[in-house]
Structure formats: structure tokens, C-alpha cells
Amino acid sequence: MAGEVTHLSEYATQQQNVTGQPTTVLDYQPEDGTRLQIKNKVAKGDEEGVPIYMDLRDSGDNPLPNDTEVILEVDVPSRSKTLAVSEKLENIAPWNAIALGDQRNEENVDAVKVELEGAVINVRYFDVLSVIVTSSAQVDWANSEFYMDGKATRTVPHEE
Asked: pLDDT per residue over 33-67, tens digit each?
């Protein structure tokens, strides 16, 4: 079963960030009884990491500033703090410089990979995967897009 991690998924919730502080802009909670697996290495490009295709824009349809920071975190109910599951992107300049459609091209994919904190990240149906953004501008989902490469994600039955 494929796991579609996008801003348009029925399991995703789009949110607006608070400028100047780390804020969740997208939550993804797998379907009941399943587990989302995200692989850190895919058969696309040469580098480690999961290809993430994104075009984050404000309400004026302008790209968010290059110094916008992004990190993936998982909220696990049994823990008091969320867990960072990816490297923290200090800026989104590569995503701003490469058009969304071109980010998927073999020659560009390594520039838009994000390294994970392990070979495989498992997000259980009662966990929440969050995209956290720190930016001086607000994400407007009417103008923005976010996708994880389908070769890096899959949904499997959750086993207790």
C-alpha cells in the first residue's frame, strides 16, 4: 500500500504558521490501524535522504524567504516532547531556486533531499508527523504545495 504524504492527503491537516517562531504548518496522521514508513534512502539520485518537493508561498504568491527553516517532527503520545526525525533545514534556497516540477528531475533530486534521523522512520496511526516551519512570512496553502516522494513512503498494517 502506498503512503501519500502530501498537503492534499485526506490524512493531512494544513495549518498557518506564526511568523518568527517554529510552528506546525502541516500534520499527517496515518489511517487507523496503519503505520507510515519513510525511508531515508531511495533509488533516485545519489545522496541519502528523502526527496521532498515543496513550494512554500505567502498570500501574495511570493516564495517564503530563503532563510525559512524546516524540520520534520513526530508527536508520540507517550512522550512529553515531539521527536525531531529529520535534519533541520537552515534555509529553503534550493527549493526556491528549482521549480516544483523540476525538483523531481534526476539532476535536481539530490538538492531537495532531507536526511532523516535513521534508516526508516515509522509513524504509527496514533502518532502525528509534522512539518515545522520558522519563517518571517506565513505559509498560504492556497498558493503552496508539499510532497514526499512516493518511492520513500509506504503505508503498512500496524503490528502491536
From this structure: 999 999 999 888 889 999 999 999 999 999 999 99
Residue with cell 534521523: 117
CA dist list (Å): 52 to 88, 94, 100: 13, 11, 10
Dihedral in degrees, nearest 10, Cα atoms 90, 94, 99, 101: -90
What is the phi/psi pair of residue 141, to 5°? Answer: -70, -15
Rounded to whole angstroms, how far apart are CA atoms 42 and 49? 8
C-alpha cell at 146: 508539499
CA distance 146 to 131: 10
Which of 123, 125, 131, 97 has the alpha carbon at shortest distance from 111?
Answer: 97
SS3 26: strand
Q: Specify the pTM.
A: 0.94
DSSP 8-state assignment for residue 133? E
Q: What does R_g of the chain's alpha carbons equal in angstroms? A: 15
